């Protein structure tokens, strides 16, 4: 985890994909469930740089170093669980239609089937939860889910870029967010970099 920025800085296609995968995997881990103390400790050791991703990583590391496991667990609950519902609903269907379990989720499930992506045992959240989508993007970047760059681009545009930037911006400014403000910033920057990279590839 400490070499995420190093992988991005390397500049080779393989290292860039590794850096992308690690960024997505980190987001997935922080958004799937409240991070335990050991994960916060690992994040606190990450070193950034003067790139947008590196600066966001550095801010996330500082937030993790100042975080307390119990406090972050309460924050996670207020943000994503709540009594009835949390401050934010981290689902693609909700952000795109205003309702859960709508057509975007059905389209995602169809594409997951085409790509051979199977939801892990024990996961109760719908597949369009932001954490699961980040994990899928990590798998696509590493080749764990066989695809080509064009297929990855389409998956990103259809199922991630269509709503995740708004979610991360909302997370960055959420009332209940403290530690998760830095997570929101990191996610927003990763989305911006991904979107710009795919746009550049189209050019």
Which residue ranges are poorly predicted, with pLDDT under 50 across at least 5 consecutive positions? 1-5
Q: What would the average pLDDT be, to the nearest integer?
A: 92
Give the name of the CATH superfamily.
TorD-like
How would you characterize the largest beta sheet?
none
Count the helices. How many? Answer: 11
What is the level-2 CATH architecture name? Answer: Orthogonal Bundle
> How many β strands by DSSP?
0
Structural class: mainly alpha
Order of helices and strands: HHHHHHHHHHH
- Alpha-carbon distance between the termini? 32 Å
Strand content: under 5%
Question: What features would you describe in this structure?
Answer:
- The chain is mainly alpha-helical and 203 residues long.
- The protein has one domain (4-82, 92-202): TorD-like (Orthogonal Bundle).
- The protein is built from 11 helices and no strands.
- It has helices at residues 4-10, 13-32, 37-44, 52-66, 69-80, 92-97, 103-115, 130-142, 149-159, 164-173, 179-202.
- The radius of gyration is 16 Å and the shape is globular.
Write the layout of secondary structure elements.
Blueprint: H1 4-10, H2 13-32, H3 37-44, H4 52-66, H5 69-80, H6 92-97, H7 103-115, H8 130-142, H9 149-159, H10 164-173, H11 179-202
Brief account:
This protein is mainly alpha-helical and 203 residues long. It is built from 11 helices and no strands.
């Amino acid at each position: 985890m400490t070499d995420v920025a190093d992988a991005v800085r390397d500049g080779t296609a393989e290292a860039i994909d590794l850096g992308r995968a690690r960024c997505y995997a980190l987001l997935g881990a922080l958004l799937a469930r409240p991070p335990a103390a050991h994960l916060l400790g690992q994040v606190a050791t990450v070193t950034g740089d003067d790139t947008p991703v590196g600066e966001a990583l550095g801010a996330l590391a500082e937030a993790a170093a100042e975080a307390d496991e119990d406090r972050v667990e309460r924050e996670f609950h207020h943000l994503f669980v709540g009594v009835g519902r949390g401050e934010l609903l981290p689902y693609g269907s909700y952000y795109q239609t205003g309702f859960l379990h709508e057509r975007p989720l059905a389209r995602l499930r169809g594409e997951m089937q085409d790509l051979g992506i199977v939801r892990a045992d024990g996961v109760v959240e719908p597949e369009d939860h932001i954490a699961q989508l980040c994990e899928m993007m990590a798998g696509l970047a590493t080749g764990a889910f066989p695809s080509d760059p064009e297929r990855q681009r389409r998956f990103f545009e259809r199922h991630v870029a269509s709503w995740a930037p708004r979610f991360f911006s909302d997370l960055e400014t959420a009332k209940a967010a403290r530690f998760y403000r830095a997570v929101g910033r990191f996610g927003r920057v990763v989305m911006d970099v991904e979107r710009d990279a795919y746009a550049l590839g189209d050019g």
